[in-house]
Design a protein that fits this description.
- The protein is an alpha+beta fold.
- 22% of the residues lie in helices and 37% in strands.
- It contains four helices and six strands; from the N terminus they run E-H-E-E-H-H-H-E-E-E.
- The strands form two sheets. A four-stranded antiparallel sheet has the order 2-3-1-4. Strands 5-6 form a two-stranded antiparallel ribbon.
- The protein is globular.
């Protein structure tokens, strides 16, 4: 299992506006191997807002399948002024300051009453 995190920096005051773009699925939840998505807002930053969009996948091949899909291309396409949201997407694009993608292999995962770990990580019992 892997978690892919896209850390997105935006102009101060626009973090929640950009986060709203992730409310509607745009097809990721139908992608084979997709398990979950979380959009996190970093608190306490003074110069800019930061979001971390974390997606969890069964494996790296599943994530790569999403990145190479038509759904991904459509979800990340710039629509311009005539876009569905009357130009609001164009405004959102202007506030982007940068992003960085990181991939993490899940070694231990814990949910209420359940512990999972990958091979090579010893049980603590």
């Amino acid at each position: 299992m892997i978690v892919v995190t896209n850390t997105i920096k935006v102009k101060k005051g626009y973090g929640e506006t950009v986060a709203n773009r992730f409310v509607n699925s745009k097809g990721i939840d139908l992608s084979p191997g997709f398990l979950r998505m979380e959009v996190l807002f970093t608190e306490g930053l003074e110069e800019y807002d930061e979001l971390k969009v974390s997606t969890t996948w069964e494996n790296k091949a599943s994530f790569e399948g999403w990145v190479n899909s038509d759904s991904f291309r459509q979800a990340h396409a710039y629509k311009g002024k005539g876009a569905q949201q009357s130009g609001k997407r164009e405004q959102t694009e202007c506030v982007m300051l940068g992003s960085q993608l990181t991939t993490h292999r899940v070694l231990v995962a814990r949910q209420a009453g359940i512990v999972q770990h990958s091979e090579g990580v010893a049980d603590a019992n």
